[in-house]
Amino acid sequence: MSRTCLDCARRSDRVFCDLPHDTLQEFDGIKSLRTCPRGTILFREGQSARSVFLLCTGRVRLSVCSEDGRRMTVRVTSAGEVLGLSAALAGGSYEVTAETLDSVQVAQVRRKEMLHFLRAHREVCLQVVNLLSEDLHLAYNRVRTVGLARTRHPHVSGHSLQIH
Amino acid sequence: MLFEPRPDGVTRGCQVLSPYGLDIIESCLTCKMRVDRLFCDLPTAALQSFESIKYATAYPKGAVLFVEGQAPRGIFVLCKGRVKLSICASDGKTLILKIADPGEVLGLSAAVSGKAYELTAETIDPCQVNFVKREDFLRFLKEHSEACFKVAEQLSEKYNVACHEVRSLGLSHSAAEKLAKLLIEWSGRNGESQKQEPRLKLALTHEEIAQMIGTSRETVTRLFADLKKRQILQTKGSTLVIRNKAALRTLATTG
């Protein structure tokens, strides 16, 4: 995988990454690349949102957790998606926990720098609005599945409930 | 700008009649409430541009703004009144996702993505709504980065609510736990949560509360009766008093 977004062959297929040369160069300057093994927690639900993660390769599971530790998968994200975006924009805490399902490469950007970058580049902000709309669409689908498929007791056994 | 009446009761411009007992906000530029509202607090140039593409509309209680599955016509900025947002299963079972308050932009993600509305929006009070056609709105976002940023913030908040709903519906043990969580959440919104005995105005029927937590009306009625019997809740007309916060919190965590 390329160290710079400018040389990345896959960026034209990815909503967030397909940016003009100068904008991408600026993004290169604020990101830090990380390689994480399978099972790494990128962020936890409830934690203050300090960074945004652009998933370059691999898959990440987003899940929510109950007070007694039962976990439910909201969805599995794939390369090209931006994680932690809504929490960073809202200025609150992460709504979900993000755990890598493969060995992944992520580009991490600190919240303040991301907000500054978005304000400076209208086209990126538009991409982000598109991404958030897609995230929300999927989240509403999940609400429909979870809320209307089973309206009484969840009948959970063990500590992990996954609804795909 | 001239007053332009349209046959469907929609007006575009600066002067609007006051149907359904609403005191209509005529112009976004002079609206006193906009500073407190996430989307509306825009720079003057953006606001002027918005003013030229919006249609100020008044709706009575019970009007449907858009229906789940319908192709997105545009966005609806809720100026006054409240709107019920719900999703529906093929067997007619309904789940209320949220009661939207003034300042919210409805139909946003569908209008941006071009996919069908994911929810149904129905007014539960007489409402003033500013409608903007989809193509006008997308052009507006491209031209005004500040508005684009605010839309991103609104979408983020909506995502947060959706995740909260997934957690509540998917991981709660019982209807009692979900109802207790809902009451705690409501008491937190109006600043009552710090009080010894928080009060909240019940604006929804038992049927609607049931649709919020994915259970039956009968179960909600039974749960309220049980909570009153255990002196956890007390009702005074449509006002609900939480008499035992600790017990309600325990119920919210243990079911």
Low-confidence stretches of chain A: 150-164
Tally of helical segments of chain B:
8
What's the CATH topology name of chain A?
A: Jelly Rolls
CATH architecture grouping of chain A: Sandwich
Global morphology of chain A = globular
Query: How does the major sheet of chain A shape up?
Result: 5 strands, mixed
Helical fraction of chain A: 25-40%
Overall radius of gyration of chain B? 20 Å
Percentage of residues in DSSP E strands of chain B: 15-25%
Structural class of chain A: alpha+beta
Q: Count of DSSP E strands of chain A?
A: 9
Q: CATH H-level name of chain A... which superfamily? A: Jelly Rolls
Outline of chain B, from the CA principal axes? Answer: globular
Q: Spatial order of the strands in the main sheet of chain B?
A: 3-10-5-8
The number of helical runs of chain A is 4
For the record, give the distance between the C-alpha atoms at the N and C termini of chain A, rounded to a whole number. 29 Å
CATH topology of the largest domain in chain B: Jelly Rolls
CATH-level-2 architecture of the largest domain in chain B = Sandwich
The run of helices and strands of chain B is EEHEEEEEEHEEHHHEHHEEH
- What is the typical, i.e. mean, pLDDT of chain A? 86
Work out the count of structural domains of chain B.
2
Fold blueprint:
The complex is a heterodimer of chains A (164) and B (255).
Chain A: H1 21-30, E1 31-36, E2 41-43, E3 51-57, E4 60-65, E5 71-77, E6 82-83, H2 85-90, E7 97-100, E8 104-110, H3 111-120, H4 122-149, E9 160-162
Parallel strand pairs in A: 5-9
Antiparallel strand pairs in A: 1-8, 2-7, 3-6, 3-8, 4-5, 4-7
Chain B: E1 4-5, E2 11-12, H1 44-53, E3 54-59, E4 64-66, E5 74-80, E6 83-88, E7 94-100, E8 105-106, H2 108-113, E9 120-123, E10 127-133, H3 134-143, H4 145-171, H5 175-189, E11 199-201, H6 206-213, H7 217-229, E12 233-236, E13 239-242, H8 245-254
Antiparallel strand pairs in B: 1-2, 3-10, 4-9, 5-8, 5-10, 6-7, 6-9, 11-13, 12-13
Helix pairs in contact in B: 1-3, 3-4, 5-8, 6-7
